[in-house]
Amino acid sequence: MTELSNQQTLSTPIANLDDRSATLARLAAEAADERKGSEIVLLKVGDVTVLADYFVMVTGYSKVQVRAIARSIEEKVEETMNRRPIRSEGFAEGSWIVEDYGDVIVHVMMPQEREYYGLESCWGHAARVPFVEF
To answer: What are the start-end ranges of the E strands in 1-134?
Structure first.
C-alpha cells in the first residue's frame, strides 16, 4: 500500500478522509485551547482550495506561548492519531509557526502577524467550523 499524508492510504474511503481531517483539526484546536491559545478559528477550506481540508488559526501572546501551543498540538496529534507534521516552520522566530499535516494546516501566530496577514479575510469564503472552548 502506498502511503499518502502520513497515515492516509489509497484504500481509505474518501468520506473517512474528511472525518480524519475534521478530527485532526479539532484535536489541534483542543491542544491550543489547553495552552491558553485564543481566537481559535477552524476554517473548512477544502471546498475552496486544494491546499488542505482545514486551516486552524490560533493566537498566542508571546513567542514562548506560540511555541508552547505548537508543541502541544504536535504532541496531542501524535499521541492521539500517530501523525507528525509533514513540515513545520517558524519555531526559531516564534512569532508565526505553521504546522502542515497535509490535510490540515495549523497557524499559531502572535496578534501582530495575525492582524497584518489577515488569513481569515483571505479565506473568508471558507466555512467556519464552530469550536466550543471547554
So the answer is: 3-4, 8-9, 38-44, 54-59, 87-89, 96-100, 104-109, 127-129
pLDDT in tens, 81-132: 999 999 999 999 999 999 999 999 999 999 999 999 988 888 878 888 877 6
pLDDT in tens, 52-88: 999 999 999 999 999 999 999 999 999 999 999 999 9
The CA distance from 34 to 133, in Å, is: 9
Three-state SS at 131: coil
Burial class (CB in 10 A: 0-12, 13-18, 19+), 124: exposed
Give Cα 100 distance to the centre of its chain.
7
Whole-prediction pTM value?
A: 0.82
Under DSSP, is residue 128 helix (H, G, I), strand (E, B) or coil? strand
Residue 33 and residue 24 in contact, taking contact as beta carbons nearer than 8 Å: no
Instruction: Tell me the one-letter amino acid at 65.
Output: Q
Distant-in-sequence, close-in-space partners of 3: CB < 8 Å, separation ≥ 6 = 9
